[in-house]
Specification:
Layout: E1 4-5, E2 11-12, H1 26-35, H2 47-51, H3 55-67, H4 77-85, H5 90-95
Antiparallel strand pairs: 1-2
């Protein structure tokens, strides 16, 4: 799996660990585009949404941007492991009910 890199060039285990302002996920789009063909985690703390009032809206916009790509899936860690054990094409995943 690949991780996030903050504006300062350091890796961060969670989105809110990166140098973001909570209202703008522009840097996270760049990170995603760098690695988007392999599994990439998207974890954050609830405090992000308490600290930045616009964080939820920004995250929602970011997620919609990603979902506009035909080969992007939001899945649980268990689903990633299942896919790694039995990798499937987009068509096969849709047929198997991976759609949300």
């Amino acid at each position: 799996m690949n991780g996030w890199v903050g504006d300062n060039g350091y890796s961060c285990g969670m989105i809110d660990g990166c140098s973001i302002d909570g209202a703008n996920f522009t840097g996270t789009v760049d990170d995603f585009l760098r690695y988007y063909r392999v599994p990439m985690h998207m974890f954050t703390h609830a405090a992000l949404f308490m600290k930045y009032s616009q964080a939820f809206q920004a995250l929602t916009i970011f997620m919609h941007e990603l979902l506009a790509m035909k080969n992007v899936w939001f899945v649980t860690p268990s689903q990633v492991i299942a896919w790694m054990r039995d990798a499937r094409t987009n068509s096969e995943m849709i047929a198997a009910g991976w759609s949300c």
